[in-house]
Structure formats: C-alpha cells, structure tokens
C-alpha cells in the first residue's frame, strides 16, 4: 500500500516541491522512496500525491507520515502476500510469506477482459451489491457477491462468483472481476488477504495495464517513471537524529 495524500483543491505545479518537502516519511529501515503526483480517477489532476519505495515495503517496517508539524500517521507493514492471476491459465498463484498456493479462477470474458497490471487491495467486504449498468454495461445484471476484495475505483473486485463453481480454472466468463468458487475457496482467500496486499494480473492481450490513479496502481510505474512525476526526487526515510 502506498502512502496517499489528497487535497481539497488542486496543487499547482509551482507549489508541488514545497508540498513534497512539507510531507515527511520516516521508516525503521531508512529505505529510499519518493512522492509522485497521481491523476486520480475521481479527483482529477493535482489533488493526490503518493509515496512509495522503489520496491515493495519490507514486512515489519514501521512507517510514520508527518503532515507538516500539525499531525502524523503511523503504521507497520504486515507480512508479504502477493497474488498473481494468470488469465491465460485461469489460475491464481498466492505467495503468502513464502508459502505458495494455487487457486483456480475465472476472469473477464473476451471484450470485458480483466485489467492487466498490478493492483493493491483497497478495502474488503463480506458482501457487495453490484450492478453492471453502473460501469456502462447494458445487460442490467445485478446481484450480491460475497467475500469481496476491492482492487480498482472502476469496479474491479476479486470475489465469490457462483459461475466459478463451473468455470474456475477453465474459462473466463465474468464482467471483468476475478471470480472464486463458492465451495469455501472465496471465503478462505478473503480471510487470508488484507488491505494493502498486492494482486498482479498477467496473460491479457486485450486490456492495458491498469491506470495509476484507478485505485492504487502505483506499482505499474517503473522507478524512473515514478520519479518523473516527483519534484523533490528520491529521498531517504531514515529518521533525522535529534
């Protein structure tokens, strides 16, 4: 999960260096990271700046984000979980703190292909009501889905899907979400995953990499691309000696 700060109004180009200097990230590891300006799908340009290291946070890292001298936030990075969904083989490989498991999935059918790229779990819910028309689909399909991990603002989830009972591991048949079987598989994954975990989708030829501002797509930028949208550049997160 990147650190993400949003503003009530757009920050102009000539203010961005001062804003990045005002925001301070310190970590127990002293890792190098950088702020980068994101065109958020909902907010638009200039209202969101994210911070991340060059590679994923190391488990156990403690992070403090100081918003000037007024307030701060603290969190500790949890264990590592990275799920890789291969649309061509209909399999999800989950590496949870070094332990690997394989889960059959069904994803977006041709024409409604699941986004390819790296996403981060934004939030999760035991039940989500979904209406296909809210994302521009005309077939008016709507229902509750369970054990849902939210991946993009545009509506990509990884969740239980009754059709996965038949098609998981065999064929992609969904509206674009990643479906897990309703035989306990979906609930087990839901209980395993947490906000901030990484889900990478590969094997799609029809969909581009998910946009950076469509949720937390920050890891789809290379480190050089990330720095290109930073005015301050790479900075150390080592605490300043008192």
From TrEMBL:
Keyword Acyltransferase (UniProt): yes
GO BP: any one term: regulation of cell shape
Sections of the chain in a coiled coil: none
Signal peptide: none
Recorded metabolic or biological pathway in which this protein acts: Cell wall biogenesis; peptidoglycan biosynthesis
PROSITE patterns linked: LD_TPASE (PS52029)
Sequence ranges assigned to domain L,D-TPase catalytic in this UniProt record: 81-202
Keywords annotated in UniProt: Acyltransferase, Cell shape, Cell wall biogenesis/degradation, Peptidoglycan synthesis, Transferase
Any one GO molecular-function label of the UniProt entry: acyltransferase activity
Transmembrane segments: none
Positions of the catalytic residues: 159 (proton donor/acceptor), 177 (nucleophile)
GO annotations of cellular component type: extracellular region
Name listed for the protein in its UniProt record: L,D-TPase catalytic domain-containing protein
Native species: Streptacidiphilus pinicola
